[in-house]
Design a protein that fits this description.
The chain has helices at about 5-30, 35-40, 60-70, 75-85, 105-115, 125-130, 135-145, 180-195, 200-210, 230-235, 260-275, 295-305, 335-345, and strands at about 45-50, 70-75, 95-100, 120-125, 150-155, 170-175, 240-245, 280-285, 310-315, 325-330. By secondary structure, the protein is an alpha/beta fold. It has three domains: about 1-30; about 35-130 and about 225-345, TIM Barrel; about 135-210, no CATH class. Bound molecules: zinc ion.
Length: about 350
């Protein structure tokens, strides 16, 4: 078969498979498949996890509408009470969490959640709010996206387990062409950076910015902007709850010594309590994967007086689960409606 003919046949078979997949999905949703999945999992709790919010909130508005009509959206304090007492939650329970403390929550999402009267907890990283400065991972993203270069040589950060390695020893030539490529590269380097001790990671951060020839604005612009305390107070008066997400968003197991861990966890809690004059009872682990949470970190969180802590491990919460290792389901305020419905029911969520 000529090459072009073979290519066309392969292309047709991919398109046929896609069409079949769309048809099956439409039939599944149209015939009440999601209602059946929701019913089977009605006793489980889904804790949704959001981060940044775009200006266009039409999809978020539909998500809130769907939650209002198909779920009981409850506060994290209700989650804590049920887990402590062992009593069941209402069927179809959902809790909504927002991590990091970007300004886009106040400007874009808060009016939507308020309109639908849904309880939300926002987990704040207090250091950047105090300094009106950058979250470290946003610096990586900004540097890759805004570099004036088309190609660059970067430290590869691929030295064994990376813990004590001379990370400058190997370099990698990276092509920066293509707008889609840059966010992917930022994510890739961010992941590599996470394997280093926190102090080394921050040195790498400065070096990356200098290699990429980017000078950061002192105040993070646009989607990188963080909340200020006045906005936090306004939202607290309107019923938004606030939790702690550390002071500087480090990976807590990559800090040096217990004092630093205590400072990140207790320092953030104390700062929010001082501003809002109310107890802060809920914690969200930065990064939140199993390897980021040691027994020592868990003990500090418990001893600091938190009653729940959420991770970024995916899945629903069941009766009897540890209130300090709560799983969540990542949601984006721009995802297609069918996908959001699947995510909330923890269906086909990786
Ligand atoms: Zn975070």
């Amino acid at each position: 078969m000529p090459i072009l003919g073979r290519f066309t046949t392969v292309n047709h078979s991919i398109m046929a498979r896609k069409r079949l997949f769309f048809t099956v999905r439409r039939l599944f949703h149209g015939c009440g498949g999601m209602a059946a999945i929701r019913w089977l999992r009605r006793e489980n709790l889904s804790i949704l996890m959001y981060h940044k919010f775009p200006e266009d909130t039409s999809a978020l508005d539909r998500q809130c509408h769907y939650l209002r009509h198909h779920y009981h959206v409850i506060s994290m304090s209700s989650v804590a009470s049920a887990l402590r007492s062992g009593s069941p939650l209402p069927d179809y329970s959902v809790a909504i969490t927002v991590d990091d403390g970007h300004r886009s929550f106040y400007e874009n999402a808060f009016p939507v959640f308020r309109k639908h009267q849904l309880p939300v907890i926002v987990n704040l990283t207090t250091g950047p709010i105090d300094a009106q400065s950058w979250l470290w991972f946003d610096r990586v993203s900004y540097a890759f996206i805004n570099s004036p270069l088309q190609a660059v040589t970067l430290p590869s950060l691929r030295m064994g387990d990376g813990l004590e390695a001379p990370w400058r020893n190997t370099v990698e030539d990276v092509v920066l062409e293509g707008a889609e490529r840059r966010p992917r590269l930022a994510d890739e380097w961010m992941e590599r950076m996470k394997s280093f001790p926190d102090s080394t990671m921050r040195q790498i951060l400065s070096e990356l910015e200098s290699c990429l020839e980017v000078s950061l604005p002192s105040k993070p612009p646009g989607p990188y902007a963080v909340l200020d305390w006045e906005q936090v107070k306004i939202m607290a008066r309107s019923g938004i709850d606030f939790g702690s997400h550390s002071v500087t968003h480090p990976i807590l197991t990559r800090l040096t010594g217990l004092a630093q861990v205590e400072q990140e966890i207790r320092g953030s809690k104390g700062r929010i309590e001082a501003v809002l004059d109310r107890p802060v009872a809920h914690f969200a682990f930065p990064n939140g994967q199993p390897e980021d949470i040691s027994d020592e970190v868990l003990r500090v969180v418990r001893d600091a007086g938190f009653i729940t802590a959420v991770t970024t491990s995916g899945g629903q919460v069941q009766r009897g689960d540890n209130p300090y290792l709560l799983k969540r389901i990542s949601c984006k305020p721009v995802m297609p409606d069918y996908q959001f419905r699947q995510h909330v029911a923890a269906f086909r969520v990786r």
